[in-house]
What we know:
Layout: H1 2-10, E1 16-20, E2 23-28, H2 35-47, H3 49-53, E3 55-62, E4 65-72, E5 77-78, E6 84-88, E7 91-93, H4 96-105, E8 115-116, E9 118-123, E10 129-130, E11 141-142, H5 145-162, H6 170-178, E12 237-242, E13 246-251, E14 254-259, H7 260-277, E15 283-293, H8 296-304, H9 306-311, E16 315-318, E17 323-330, H10 338-349, H11 358-373, H12 383-395, E18 409-413, H13 414-420
Parallel strand pairs: 6-9
Antiparallel strand pairs: 1-2, 3-4, 4-9, 5-8, 6-7, 10-11, 12-13, 13-14, 14-18, 15-17, 16-17
Amino acid sequence: TDQVKRLAMVRADIAFKLTSGDRVALSLPAETGDLFDARLRRLARILGRDFGDNAVPIEAARDGVRVSGYAGLPTYNRGSAQFQFLFVNGRPVRDKLALGAVRGAYADFLARGRHPVVALFLDLDPELVDVNVHPAKTEVRFRDSGAVRGLIVGALRHALAEAGHRASTTVAGAALSAFKAPTGGAYQMDYGRRAHVHTAPSEDLQETLREFDAPSAQGAPEDLSAQEAPLDYPLGAARAQVHETYIIAQTADGIVIVDQHAAHERLVYERMKQALAATGVARQILLIPEIVELDEVQAARLLARAAEFAELGLVIEAFGAGAVAVREVPALLGEMDAAGLVRDLADDLSDIDEALSLKERLESVCGTMACHGSVRAGRRLTAEEMNALLREMEATPHSGQCNHGRPTYVELKRADIERLFGRR
């Protein structure tokens, strides 16, 4: 069945039927129309309708090699890599290099142990690929493997960036299901596999968040309902903050619930990456250096990467055996626990794959820094701050999920809410 499904993915224009005894194991009608649309319909029949609703198109070419297909949004993911399909000149293959490229492209968006769902079709001159590596011809070897990997990573990252703040439609379904407690059990939600959605922003909004490290507002809560609010924005207008963790926003046809820490963590991370790619991350000198005690192995590991950290705005130097001194920190992180950041970085370095490129290693470190520099749960926000956060989310790619692949917001349509109360 698996083999037939793979063949069917390649040729959406051909009908497939597989029987086992009297049972029809698989029946797929021929798809007509545009190749891309027909292929997506075929993939949705095989991988499920949710994939069809939550996949972005992939298409790119370079030096005679073309990659096309579809890739699932980061918040639409699975617990294994078995839902990653690769085809080379119409032949289903399992290629470690290509699968590694997929893993690298999604590294910014998924937690360890979660895997994207993709179907990629590579077309190139047969002279540029050796299909006789494996007796079953399930493995291939590319003449220029680096170029192929770069093409796949670039195509996937571009498509995911084009998706803007969109996350998968399944988050809303998970939220609604959670309102129905299982008999005799507790509410359960698995955001590793389920998530939400929205259209990408139509233009770059230039508003920025005010400094989140300013003291929290005190006193009576603001009357948000009486303020002018842009309901026509994709993420609506802030109406309340609950448990000093979640922002409730009203849209034209529903509500949005935002996890303020997860959302801001992604925004800080994307800012750091942009700064790194442009002029480097601005630094802020500490009046009194922070001394961090570590074991000698951790300290040596950190100091060996001191130049890389400096590119990200973190300047450290040796301070005796098993200790480092923090001299400067990234300015955009504001007030922060420098010692906690350094300890987390020391732990992370032991997990980072040495085979990753410098850029990929730096992006991994950026994620840890962003977590320390983002607005925390428990921080009371003003109406202006909440709406600024919503606007920046709409203008920032990948903001539909945090750095660990969890959704940053859930949207419930008014019709969904009405069904909960039996109005529909």
